[in-house]
Amino acid sequence: MCKNINTSLKTSTCDCRPRWRTKRAAPAHRTSSISGMEEEGARPLFSFGVIADIQYADIDDGYNFVCTRRRYYRHSLKLLRRASDSWKSESPRPSFVLQLGDIIDGFNKKHDASRKALDAVLRELNNDGAAAVHHVWGNHEFYNFSREELSASALNSKGVCGAEEGAAGDSYWYDFSPRSERYGQALRLLLEHNDNEELNNPPGLEQRFVKFNGGFSQDQLQWLDRLLTISDEKHEKVTIVSHLPVHPSSSDPICLAWNYDEVLSVLHSHKCVVCFMAGHDHDGGYHKDFYGIHYLTFEGVIETPPEQDAFGTVYVYEDKMILKGHGRVASRILQYL
Ligand SMILES: Nc1ccn([C@@H]2O[C@H](COP(=O)(O)OP(=O)(O)OC[C@H](O)CO)[C@@H](O)[C@H]2O)c(=O)n1
């Protein structure tokens, strides 16, 4: 749902100067047990897989911009294979997989390898009859492809496993190509809050106003509000997926959507929302707010060492969801109010 503005790539070399403050030290709250899954006795209604920030590139390991985290560009494909194999081994298999954005890294563009890298990742995801995949577009999608290319690609999940046409179509309606009106709006907003020459350097207090983030337009917020109103009326339970996190307690401040507060206002005005899933912050995070909404930020594959994993399977029940995490992703019981 959430899209990021396009930006040019910097070089792969890292001079290790601290360019912005790094993230919080305290780990997110973790639920220590998923015993509810066994105690429940009932079978889940359905399950789905979740994976975030694969950022595959056929290049040697590197680092994030501020050189605080190693990035395992090539290994990310192997971690995806392990996730895919795990989902395939489950019985019953997950109904679908959520890919939360940044499926390939922006460095592919520099190496003219965007299409090849995407094909390699999709081969793993679609491996031998695996579950259908819903793709979210993150900032790295826009480093690699134009909006038109994305819409025409397999990353357009319109129609995947029963998605409603309108909803799926709307979810990709954002045009952040440099020439677009929306790009201009986004850039003006960014410049109002960030006066650094390098717009990926965060301003003092409002760290999220950097170029690799983005925001939700009024159109998108109204669209979300409309859909949630319908879900309220139908007494549905809604999980929203986005590349960018929206709750400050579920993410490093530098990774938050610019207007996260406006998104939270919409979520809080509806009783149907039970969960908000995001990626982008590779360290992950979790928070349950006063309204009982669970904000899950999934740990990124790209910064997960080769011997570890970073994916999950969510089992959906009438009264809760149970996340069975693998490797860096913690298992949690997500009880509805
Ligand atoms: N080695 C690198 C890595 C990145 N950059 C540039 O830095 C900007 C932001 O990095 P990006 O890779 O887009 O960030 P992610 O979306 O992967 O992660 C966001 C949070 O940091 C997660 O914690 C961008 O302009 C890159 O090109 C670089 O120059 N050198």
From TrEMBL:
Protein name as catalogued: Manganese-dependent ADP-ribose/CDP-alcohol diphosphatase
Family: Belongs to the ADPRibase-Mn family.
Domain Calcineurin-like phosphoesterase, chain residue ranges per copy: 47-283
Subunit composition and interactions: Monomer.
Catalytic reaction list: ADP-D-ribose + H2O = D-ribose 5-phosphate + AMP + 2 H(+); CDP-choline + H2O = phosphocholine + CMP + 2 H(+); CDP-glycerol + H2O = sn-glycerol 3-phosphate + CMP + 2 H(+)
GO molecular function: 2',3'-cyclic-nucleotide 2'-phosphodiesterase activity; ADP-ribose diphosphatase activity; CDP-glycerol diphosphatase activity; manganese ion binding
Keyword Oxidoreductase listed: no
Cofactor: Mg(2+)
Family matches, as PANTHER family: MANGANESE-DEPENDENT ADP-RIBOSE_CDP-ALCOHOL DIPHOSPHATASE, PTHR16509
Domain of life: Eukaryota
Pfam families the record matches: Metallophos (PF00149)
Keyword set, alphabetical order: Hydrolase, Metal-binding, Zinc
